[in-house]
Amino acid sequence: MDNEKGYTTAEMQKRVDAYIGQFKEGYFSPLSLMARLTEEVGELAREVNHYHGEKPKKASEQEKTIEDELGDLLFVAICFANSLDIDLSESFERSMSKIETRDKNRWTRKDGEGNDHD
């Protein structure tokens, strides 16, 4: 990765907000953002299929990368969160706490513990 800058979620949300804040239109509605998020997931799926699936790119298709599509997806997700005044750090913490509890014994651990698949 060329960019050595690491961003906190708060910094990412602030940077996106500063960008969107330049424009009179502001954030799109939640429904429009959901459509944009779905569109970006589709573009990511297309790239994954080109590189890891059975559908190679045509010679005429523009070169994109999975990394680029993940960045686009992240931008739209941050717009969605900002438009609804959601702190992504708090959202991530709640999700990870839930996953770490619910799924703690779901898969075989490298240390050999927790592989009874409750």
TrEMBL record:
InterPro entries: MazG-like_dom, MazG-related_YpjD, YpjD/YvdC. Transmembrane segments: none annotated. Signal peptide: none annotated. Residues 28-107 form the NTP pyrophosphohydrolase MazG-like domain. SUPFAM superfamilies: all-alpha NTP pyrophosphatases. It comes from the Bacteria. This is NTP pyrophosphatase, house-cleaning of non-canonical NTPs. It comes from Sediminibacillus halophilus. The lineage of its organism: Bacteria, Bacillati, Bacillota, Bacilli, Bacillales.
